[in-house]
Structure prediction request, 495 residues.
Amino acid sequence: MKGKFLLAIDQGTSSSRTVIYNHDARAVASDQQEFPQIYPQPGWVEHDPEAIWSSVTSVTRGAMEKAGAVASDILAIGITNQRETTLIWDRETGECVCNAIVWQDRRTAAYCQALKNDGLEATVTSKTGLRLDPYFSGTKIAWILDNVDGVRARAEAGKLAFGTVDSFLLWRLTGGRVHATDATNASRTLLFNIHTQEWDDELLAIFSVPRQMLPDVRDCADDYGLAVDASIGGEVPVCGIAGDQQAALIGQASVEPGMTKSTYGTGCFVIANTGDHALHSENQLLTTVAMRIGGEVTYGLEGSVFVAGSAMQWLRDELRIIDAAPESEEIARRTGVVEDIFVVPAFAGLGAPYWDPDARGAILGLTRGSGRDDIVTATLQSVAFQTCDLISAMSEDGIKPSVIRVDGGMVANNWFLQFLADVLDVPVERPDNVESTVLGAACLAGAQAGVVSSVADIESLWRRDKLFEPAMQKAQRERLLEGWNDAVRRIRTST
Prediction:
């Protein structure tokens, strides 16, 4: 049967994955591949664009082979991606002018501070909903233009294209025929006015970015041209794109105002659906485009934590005190809640609600009796504490979720989710499909292709696996949060 599958590409920070779904949103095959992280200097994080592309083509071929599928079996392709990561490439050759600068990269901290000193943050925030922070794409583009030989002149001559990872993949998949992005990814660049839904001339002037570099901005479910790359093996329409966190919101069926999800991948990202209202945060959260469907914009209130699952990688790869992330659950079960040791994993600075790019990680409260199990458990707890910071800020902004839907690799850990519910004092809901990000991309493609009648219908496809109810005593919760807040105060460089 022609077009019996949806193919979704999830290009993440540490790995690429392709999943093939049937029309009932059931995965029938998948493939995943990690790729190298590059750390040229302290605070710098890069990816080799060709490693990204190679991993995507490899897992796409792998998933199709496992499904026994050929191009004619694929109805549509959806793409989701690590967001703010920045690439610039030659329009003729398709080759990037330098490595991709990853969203975690902090090399533009001084530039951001200079813009703040010039009094520009209020203008930027009012138009974009974002803060002047190295996290976002705009300052990364400016850095490449000013630090890679000849790039600015070539960009001004219209010879170069900018894109977040979705645009880069789309360019490659379509053989250089389509240079486009979606509204969610555009909203993370510092260059896109989320109220007018257009690239903004004043913002382009602030960051000195030539307009001719920028991609066309389309709805999340839209016509993105035909994928013709050999990894597909034929012509297949690309019908959906969304940044990973927005895709997860869609995959979690959080399509009504007030619904909230938290994703635990490399970082942790909480988004609350605020409907057609672009809610301005008084508590250092971000206003962002949650989705744009049929020209109608749904906004979100977002908190970003830079280190979540990557803290588990740190325990595994740098400290070498665990062999694999799943070990942390058994260690935490036998250790129990750690009350006197706090790990603050500010390896890339602190994100929301602190926005302190110069903060660095620390372990506080160690004694001679402290050991490996305490550090592992305290690291797990740190992810929950950071989430609590975000939910508390959201509550102060008027968004008080009655339940949090969670997804991502870390949520396989039952101990972590129970501790999370305890610290938040909010029920935590895990779906039976925890890979909500890639599912969201598939649902967008399905909506454009006519398999899903509307994004709202995704609710009928969502199924709960387990509910974690808060069980911790108030006194213990308050004691833990007081200790966490004290630890954060000790490592901050700005207030």
About this structure: The mean pLDDT is 92. DSSP finds 15 helices and 23 strands in the chain.
